[in-house]
UniProtKB/TrEMBL annotation:
InterPro entries: Glyco_trans_2-like, Nucleotide-diphossugar_trans. The keyword Nucleotide-binding does not apply. GO terms for molecular function: glycosyltransferase activity. This is Glycosyltransferase. Keywords: Glycosyltransferase, Transferase. Residues 1-160 form the Glycosyltransferase 2-like domain. Signal peptide: none annotated. It comes from Novosphingobium album. It comes from the Bacteria. Pfam families: Glycos_transf_2.
Length: 325
């Protein structure tokens, strides 16, 4: 578990791990330079339970924290966990049993139960459960579907190290990039049991960085296509992805930048945080470049629901102008 200013839900997350019916584990927690009460909370549980192994240091970012913990972990199997989610008591035992029974699988996730800020059940419309078998997961990759919920993942440490761990370039979608790289060297799947309560709320990382996450996700899938075609992956050694306009040069062919811009623009229009941030400018740029317009007038109405009347008017003007042109 990596924590950065996670005091609000941290105690509940830690307690759900310590309450597992599988008890033989070390619990690595990196406090990644928090400025709230998170370090004190982590230290408190370390004093209460010897299984908790705290690492309190300056901020280095999530990917650096994850790679650090993978390297120093003592066990051959690692379970991921986030500081705002809750494990069911039998999560570890069920996933470890799966890996013991399926030695050809290097990663196993599980289904999750969505909860809100106060732990209330949520119904997220239009979201399917994660695929179960490796074959189903490969089909999901082809259509851009969900693969494995990151905080619900349990994986074999040696396999993660064999592919170089998490790649620095894919901030906020480091898990997708990792699953895509692992899909070529091991099997991945999910248990059809809701062993994790996954919290959704406006302040979570995936909401605050929706546009960057979308960009990285599209690029990660293009990098996967490169590897599938037997071509080198130009993202493998990057510390950060270049601007969208430079992606043609990165991949050595035209059309990549336009494809990424279009897919991201069509994806971020459903995110309030993205439409209030730089995702809106990307959407407008996509339209001015002659990109797909389907559903864009509904996006004008969506912006009004998001409380962004000025941006709604600007998008309507862009649509009218580009249509007239």
């Amino acid at each position: 578990m990596s924590v950065y200013n996670g005091e609000r839900y941290l105690a509940s997350a830690i307690e759900s791990v310590l309450a597992q019916d599988f008890t033989d584990f070390e619990f690595l927690i990196v406090d990644d330079g928090s400025t709230d009460a998170s370090p004190r909370i982590v230290q408190h549980y370390a004093e209460m339970d010897s299984r908790v192994r705290p690492i309190l240091r300056e901020n280095r970012g999530l990917i650096a924290s994850l790679n650090e913990m993978v390297k120093i972990a003592k066990a051959p199997v690692i379970a991921r966990m986030d500081a705002d989610d809750i494990c069911r008591p039998n999560r570890f035992s069920r996933q470890i049993a799966f890996l013991e029974q399926h030695p050809d699988y290097g990663v196993v996730g599980c289904w999750s139960e969505d909860i809100g800020e106060e732990g209330e059940p949520l119904i997220c419309h239009g979201m399917d459960d994660h695929p179960l078998t490796h074959e189903e997961l490969l089909r999901a990759i082809e259509i851009g579907g969900q693969l494995i919920c990151h905080p619900a993942a349990v994986f074999r440490r040696d396999i993660i190290l064999s592919v170089g761990g998490y790649h620095a370039a894919f901030r906020h979608c480091e898990d997708l990039d990792l699953w895509l790289r692992l899909a070529g060297v091991t099997k991945l799947g999910n248990i059809p049991e809701r062993l994790l309560r996954y919290r959704r709320y406006p302040a979570q990382v995936s909401s605050r960085h929706a546009t960057e996450q979308q960009i990285g996700s599209v690029v990660a899938r293009i990098a996967w296509e490169e590897r599938q075609a037997g071509r080198p992956d130009p993202t493998a050694t990057l510390d950060r992805l270049p601007p969208i306009a430079d992606l043609d040069a990165l991949f050595g062919r035209p059309g990549v930048s336009r494809r990424v811009r279009e897919q991201v623009a069509l994806g971020v229009r459903y995110s309030a945080s993205a439409m209030r941030g730089n995702g809106f400018d990307l959407l407008v740029s996509h339209l001015r470049d002659g990109g797909r317009r389907d559903g864009m007038w509904r996006t004008v109405l969506r912006l009004l629901r998001f409380g962004e009347p000025v941006r709604a008017l600007r998008l309507a003007s862009t649509l009218a102008t580009s249509h007239a042109a």
